[in-house]
Amino acid sequence: MEKGSEQPWRVLEFYSGIGGMRYSLMKAGVNANVVEAFDINDTANDVYQHNFGHRPYQGNIQSLTAADLDRYGANVWLLSPPCQPYTRQGLQKQSGDARAFSFLQILELIPHTSQPPIMLFVENVVGFETSDTHGKMIEILRRSDFVTQEFILSPLQFGVPYSRPRYFCLAKRKPSTFHSQLFNNQLLWSPKPLFGHTNADDKVFCELDEPQGSLDKLLESCEPIESFIEFKNCRDQPNFVDNTTVSTDTIGVLEKDEENGCCTSTLDQYSVPSSLIERWGSAMDIVYPDSKRCCCFTKSYYRYVKGTGSLLATGQPKIKDKASSLKEQSLRYFTPREVANLHSLPESFQFPQQISLRQRYALLGNSLSISVVAPLLQYLFAESS
Predict the structure, then answer these.
(1) Catalytic residue among 83, 169, 222, 294
(2) What is the pTM of this model?
């Protein structure tokens, strides 16, 4: 559907999750209305509805027809399809994985719509760009007269100490154009095009595949982790309340201290069990409040297993002898609010009370980085004709 210059963009948000794409659209300052969101996950839809006052369509996306999509009169599609078919830990069935079917079917509807979208935005894990699903996506977009620019970017490149590289595809249907057409049909590892003409030596625009020395300079530009951590006002200790009333069966009974105005909870819920330290200690990614990097938090982060995310040392300062000092480091998990902060979710974001702690971690593990997606959306929506 074409759009007048004063009219807001009409957006369809596929695989909406907890609303990371919508928050990114808001942060980008785009004049847009999300006319419908789609997600099959009932718990994610509870969170989305709690924050936006609208419950996403929960039917099977594969049942949608071109006529169904035409009825929304949308001119922009935002898609963050399941990543499991492309993850290193998964079976890597790619387009043969049932979780990839709906994404391909939605794309295949584009040529059959009476008024195809003007723009598309796709987010997924690194590895998607080498999959057969990616090849089929590009083929469909080319046939439908789209030009693309693709990126692999991390929050580290935007000053956030969170190592979470992700793949992004931006697509515009001709005659719409990108501001920097030089990068059409290319895959970039730098955000440089998003910010126009910049100093080529600027460490912020370091590419993710550059030598370690350049990446070390990139980390210097990041905020320390302590900027994203919750602290109690009264004892300078981690505050485990994430702006919601938390159910007692997940993180313990919250107690309100009326005299000093701070909340406390059973901290054991976030402490790393000694049995896990003994088993996985040598493989744990341990970070400190002054660290400039932490690893990606997966949906299985809580109750740590290897490779699911960083752990925060809240005890004594760093000690060279890691093996002998692990139990003295007071290792804990990052709280859901802290993970949300590293995703750049706004302070207003909240979980409904009934969402358990494990569910919160799982939903956050499936979310996206607003610090990365918002500039990409600004770039996508700019200079469109």
Answers:
(1) 83
(2) 0.85
